């Protein structure tokens, strides 16, 4: 479906509004090198993005969002602090929901500022909220940083924590792993493999892409995992309590402080949330009515690692979020080859703004 002239006009107006706040207007090529996204997200990205082969440039991808190319541009500029805005089409596969567009316009506002992350979080949220102020939307917030801090604080092996962290953005897989790591029961087929003196006996010739050494390493990792003690039920219950939080921000902060008594690993992350809440209040955000969900933001692209937020239209549950955003510090370190530049950004869909106006 072609982009309407009204949507393009609204996108330009929003971009100009953000530019008036001091953001530099930037552009990004529609075709981006696929290698970067594949390195970041693995082969899973093929199910969500449109990839193509260029005879000269190799494998390319239709821009699934602006954040990655904007981060790359910023890391090359070495500017600090910096603000950017942009407007243009993005392309996402929507195989599970045919009603959603696979080509639409995004307008974004990105802030790179490591001096006061809480203030930057509040700035981006308030800027997006102000742009939507006249619309019937509901704001939802979350914090991936609290969940990752909880996982890192578990009394279990580094390998298990790494597996859980890798699947935070896949709630079903995360839940299944947590259940498995909390049990000392091993499936019979796996137990037979691990108990075998020579797992390769009778295996036949090597086939597939993995070498025998790689398979042996995987078996060794499975044996080490089988020998590990289960994650304590009390710790799993605390993780579930964090993920189940659905309340206004002050009530969530109170609940998290109670959880931190038994799970001290989240203490610093809770302090970050308190600082952000104070900064939001200074920006005029009614934090006493601001909703927080412990599991919010876990099904987006996997670069958000802190504060996350979205704006939905309660009267139009059939629509995707009107705007979304979050903090992505780890992504800047990955794309900056170790040099991080703390950052947060948000995007708005002008077509959805027009639909609910």
UniProtKB/TrEMBL annotation:
Record's keyword terms, sorted: Glycosyltransferase, Transferase
Any Pfam family the entry gives: tRNA-synt_His
Coiled coil: none
GO biological process: histidyl-tRNA aminoacylation
One Gene Ontology cellular component: cytoplasm
Domain Class II Histidinyl-tRNA synthetase (HisRS)-like catalytic core: 11-170, 219-346
Top-level taxon: Bacteria
InterPro entries, sorted: aa-tRNA-synth_II/BPL/LPL (IPR045864), HisRS-like_core (IPR041715), HisRS/HisZ (IPR004516)
Entry-linked NCBIfam families: PRK12295.1-5 (NF008952)
PANTHER family: HISTIDINE--TRNA LIGASE, MITOCHONDRIAL-RELATED (PTHR43707:SF1), HISTIDYL-TRNA SYNTHETASE (PTHR43707)
Protein name (Swiss-Prot/TrEMBL): ATP phosphoribosyltransferase regulatory subunit
Organism encoding this protein: Yoonia rhodophyticola
């Amino acid at each position: 479906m072609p982009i309407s002239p009204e949507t393009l006009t609204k996108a330009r107006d929003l971009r100009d509004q953000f530019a008036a706040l001091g953001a530099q207007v930037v552009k990004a090529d529609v075709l981006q090198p696929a290698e970067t996204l594949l390195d970041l997200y693995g082969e899973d990205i093929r199910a969500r993005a449109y990839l193509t082969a260029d005879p000269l440039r190799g494998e390319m991808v239709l821009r699934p969002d602006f954040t990655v190319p904007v981060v790359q541009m910023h890391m090359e500029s070495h500017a600090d602090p910096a603000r950017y805005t942009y407007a243009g089409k993005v392309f996402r596969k929507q195989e599970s929901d045919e009603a959603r567009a696979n080509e639409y316009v995004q307008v974004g506002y990105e802030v790179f500022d490591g001096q006061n992350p809480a203030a930057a979080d509040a700035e981006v949220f308030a800027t997006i909220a102000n742009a939507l102020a006249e619309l019937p939307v509901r704001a939802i917030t979350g914090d991936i940083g609290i969940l990752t801090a909880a996982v890192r604080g578990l009394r279990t092996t580094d390998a298990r924590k790494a597996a859980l962290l890798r699947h935070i953005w896949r709630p079903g897989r995360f839940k299944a792993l947590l259940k498995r790591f909390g049990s000392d029961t091993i499936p019979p087929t796996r137990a037979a493999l691990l108990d075998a003196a020579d797992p390769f006996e009778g295996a036949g010739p090597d086939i597939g892409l993995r070498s025998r050494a790689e398979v042996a390493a995987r078996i060794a990792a499975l044996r080490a995992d089988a020998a590990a003690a289960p994650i304590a039920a009390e710790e799993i219950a605390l993780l579930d309590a964090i993920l189940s939080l659905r309340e206004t921000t002050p009530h969530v902060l109170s609940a998290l402080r109670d959880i931190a008594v038994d799970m001290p690993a989240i203490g610093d992350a809770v302090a970050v949330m308190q600082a952000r809440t104070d900064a939001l209040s200074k920006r005029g955000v009614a934090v006493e009515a601001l909703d927080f969900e412990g599991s919010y933001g876990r099904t987006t692209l996997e670069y958000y690692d802190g504060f996350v937020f979205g704006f939905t239209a309660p009267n139009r549950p059939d629509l995707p979020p009107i705007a979304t955003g979050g903090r992505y510090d780890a992504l800047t370190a990955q794309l900056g080859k170790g040099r991080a530049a703390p950052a947060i950004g948000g995007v708005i869909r002008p077509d959805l703004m027009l639909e609910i106006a």
